[in-house]
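Below is the data:
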Amino acid sequence: MSFNNKVILITGAGSGIGAATAKAFAEKSAKLSLIDINEQNLEITAEACKAKKVEVLNVAADLTKDEDVKRSIDSTVRKFGKIDIVVNCAGICGSGSILDPDLLKKFDETIAINLRTTIAITNAVAPQLIETKGNIINISSVCASLTTKYMIPYNVAKAGLTHFTKSAALELADKGVRVNCISPGYVKTPFMLNSGVSDAYIDAALIACAHIVPLKRVLEPEEIAELALFLASDKASGITGSDYAIDGGVLLTGLNALSEHKFY
């Protein structure tokens, strides 16, 4: 599987699944446009990709701002002349209970980052992808289809993202553009750091997750990246509007056991 001369735009490329995906595409000779709000993390990912002797463009951007969305795409097209594949990984861990007095603040922030940015990128990049007959991969979550306590903003945003994927896939199918999403379960990334919980909580949560997952382990971001490679490739040319769970079996058992777990 090679992505030689393919231009891949990846949001949230500074860490976690986004960084792993960028490195995976670099291994396959792709040209990369890497976008993240954290410029320092973005540079680390870019250097790792450049070590594979591929062309890399760094774009430090806040994708909740429409002007940054436009700048990211314009910069990519200016450098590479086209965009073939988009992988939307940008996101935060938006926790929140229906009883939280500041729930709506958390909700608005999570929707803006986890859902609106993907819609904005897709809306802006669609004309490019129609030209190249490209495809889009959105990183959703098993939380889109499972109900868990204390995660209302995140759950709702990911449910919206999964349905948006299907809606966009239907509209773009006759134009030769495929749109799919990946729904990970528990993945070992810095993602939870954005939730505001303590390091001790995160460590305990990861241990608890490993016990709850039927395969008895937390996934690595590289495993998600490998699925993204497949969906982006010609091997998946007949797949669009699909939601691929990669969760160690979590969908078989549910998540509420974790909601009841005490990490303190």
Summary: The chain has a mean pLDDT of 93. The radius of gyration is 18 Å.
